[in-house]
Amino acid sequence: MTKRKQILVAAAPMEVRKDLVKSSLFDEIHYCGVGSHAATVFAAQNILLVKGADILLVGSCGVFGAFTAPELFGVSAVAWRPQSYRKGQSRMLEADLEVLGLSGQYGKGLKPASCVCASALSFDDSWNPQVTATNPDQLANASQNLVENMELYSLAKVWLPEVHSFSAVLGSTNSIGPGVHEDWKENFSKVSDMTLEHLRRHR
Is the dihedral of CA 62, 33, 16, 183 positive or negative? Predict the structure, then answer.
C-alpha cells in the first residue's frame, strides 16, 4: 500500500524550526507566503502537489480576548470573517459565510479552536450584536476558543476537495489589537519551538 504524502505548509521559513526541516516527519515542506492573497495564489498553483496528501499548516494566530502566554491550538473550523463584517460595517454574500471543517490528525491533543481569516490583521476583536442577531454566526457564538490567522482559509478553501486530510496547528502570539505586530515579533519564535515539540510527540 502506498504511503500518503505528508506535507507541511507555513507562511514563511521563520515559522518552522530548522530541526523540523531536517527531520523525517514530513515528506515535503512548502512556504505559501504571508497573507491571504499570497496563500490563495500558492494554493491555486499547487493543487496537483497536494492531491491525496495529508496537509498540515503551522503558524501563528491572534486570540479574541486576553492574551497571557503563547499556546498551541488545533483548529477544527475556519471561515472568512473580516473585521468590517464582524463590526457590522460591511455585508457578505450568503455563500461566503460558509464555515470549513478541518479533520486532520495533527491537531489532536491540543486545545480546539475556530479560526477567522481576513486579508488584514484586525485591531478590534468585538462583534456587532446586530450581526449575530440577524445572521447567527457559529463562530461569533463559539464556546471554544476563537483565533485569527491570515492564510488558513485561503489554503483550505482551495485544497480541501483535493487532499486526504487538512490539519492546522496555530500558536497564539498576541491578542487582537493595535499592538499585534510587536507582540508577534516577541512570541513567534516561542510558538515555533512549541510546534516542533508537539509534532515530535505526535509522531
Answer: negative
Please name the residues in contact with 188: beta carbons below 8 A apart, sequence gap of 6 or more: 14, 15, 60, 171, 173
Spatial CB neighbours of 193, under 8 Å, sequence gap ≥ 6: 17
Q: What is the mean pLDDT of residues 95-124?
A: 89
pLDDT at 139 over 60: yes
Question: Could you tell me the CATH number of the domain that includes residue 108?
Answer: 3.40.50.1580
Give the separation between CA 66 and CA 56, rounded to whole angstroms: 27
Q: What is the pLDDT of residue 203?
A: 67
Q: Please state the domain count of the chain.
A: 1
Q: What global pTM score does this model have? A: 0.92
Cα–Cα distance for residue pair 151/38, rounded to 1 Å: 8
